[in-house]
Amino acid sequence: MAFLTVGNPTSSVYLRAPGSLGAGMEKAMQNRNDLLQTNAADQDQPWCGLLSSAAPRDHIVQLYQDQQFLNRAVCRFAAAAIANGEGVILVPTVAHWDAFRPRMEAEGVDIKAAEKRGQLTIVDADNLLPTFMRDGMPDSPVFLGLAQNVISEARADGRYPKVRWWGEMVNILWERGDVTASMALEDQFDQLADEQNIAIFCSFVMDNFNGDVHARMLPRLGENHSHLIPVEDYSRLERAVSEALRDVVGPDESRVLESQLLSRFTAPFHMPRSQALLLALRQTLPVVADNVLQRSQTLYRAPG
Which end of the chain is more exposed for a tag (fewer CB within 10 A), N or C? Predict the structure, then answer.
């Protein structure tokens, strides 16, 4: 794709697609084999349908620790948009784009053609982020102006009125320890989704079985997101949480407690039922919640 400038006219934040995958036919075949093995399982996961059908003003957040889960989620979001005739903006680090690109191609996306017709826009997250940061915080007017320019380009003179955006600048800030700045940028993305009528998807390296994440981060993320993807396997999470609750409080008490908690709890955003139960438990019985969360982690990650 041709380089375009955003903000500083002397530098470009757009990534140029490499001329080749650089790993040869063997790597391409391996990617396709991996894709065939995982796609069938992914189709049964609710997060796959959510990302495929993301609607304007949806603001979806994914928690991940496994790179392959990130790859599959982002490529599903992007590939579905291209198939639906929507514009797509991806704002990855260079390393993550190198991981996404072969998977998208294995999934049938012609990257070069999509870029050439203006349907796919790739922006370097590490280069874009500093252009709107001021004194360690995102400058809202500057960010919104830059983002609106990128979205305008992605709409390609009206050929793609519907646009989706995935990015990881918020995660870059999070991994640096700049939590306040990361959440401020999420607030600005939420504003952007409403003002520009686009779907936004972001991903964080967070452990869904970490007590601090449950106590501090998930309530904050609930203020600026519409949907939470907490884990890769929702059915496995459901089984793990149900068994963990039985192990901690007993089978009879667990049934009563689960029913009472869920009937009184209003989740801050859309999430799996088992995830809502964990948050409701923390809100009501935090000490029990810690034990259930720890036991859920063991069960979820157990082999088999």
Answer: C
